[in-house]
Amino acid sequence: MTKTKIGVLGAGTWGTALARLLAVNGCDVTMWSALPQELKNMSVTHQHPNLPGMRLPAEMHYTADIEEICTGRDVLLFAVPSVFVRSTAKKAARYVPDGQLIVEVAKGVEEKTLMTMSEIIEDELSAVPGHDGCKVVALSGPTHAEEVARDLPTLIVAGSDDKAVARRVQQIFTTPTFRVYTNPDRRGVELGGAIKNVIALAVGIAMGLDYGDNAKAALITRGNAELSRLGIAMGCQPETFAGLSGMGDLIVTCTSMHSRNLHAGMLIGRGMDPEQAKKEVGQVVEGINALPAACRLAKKYKVEMPIVTAVSDILSGRLAASDALTSLMGRQLKPE
Of 36, 278, 279, 288, which sits 20 to 30 A from 261 (CA to CA)? Predict the structure, then answer.
């Protein structure tokens, strides 16, 4: 039986955890990174420095050649951080064959264009003739890499309006411990993955200020209300935000100590500035990257997002973290 050939672009924790999952599930997996030394270390140690206890299958392959990773693959998995999606897609586009199935797992919205990650990939592919048949699927949900790497039970959503393509991704990625659902609302699936990181910063800030579980629950719930309002204004389906890629992802990112955004928020709540917090976390904090776009989307679609606005004010220095609660609690009373 011919193995499904997967090319993984990006060797961070999420890309590596998925690469291992697919390899263990019987796929032929090759990983690419713009950092050759990163690949060399993994190929020798069969480990990732930020995923302790996980062992990579010896049969996995590694390459720093962008043409090689894009050639002859059944699936290309884009797993680079959101800020590198466009530059990576631009480099890869000339080598991506027409009809290629692409799965995008980064979470964010580009500040300048307000495009989701899948839209960015499509934009770069369209700049090079011959990509009319390519399909980009968003894979998102409550999925910490640290737990997927240990085969702990995980559920996720494949977002695409092409049912056959979403179903194919579902079949390829599903394992006994990794269950994939499909959803035709790709933009909603991606929006949930981006905005929840900003809300997690708010929850972390509240935790850093020792505000307690009541405040945490309120921020999660009202944060989902903000996400839903924005998504509906952008033409997404309301039920998406009650699902795994909406409320599900929001809950795990706002409650798990695996969450970089929660950790960064806690440090900011304790008085650390955003740059110091990012350095202390030591990995990409996607909520800080997504914040400017979230604010611009709220303004563009005329949607009230007070929690997102408060986080922006705190991170920019316009508002002290300790004053944000007073600002939010003092807003005009209204129905839920």
Answer: 36
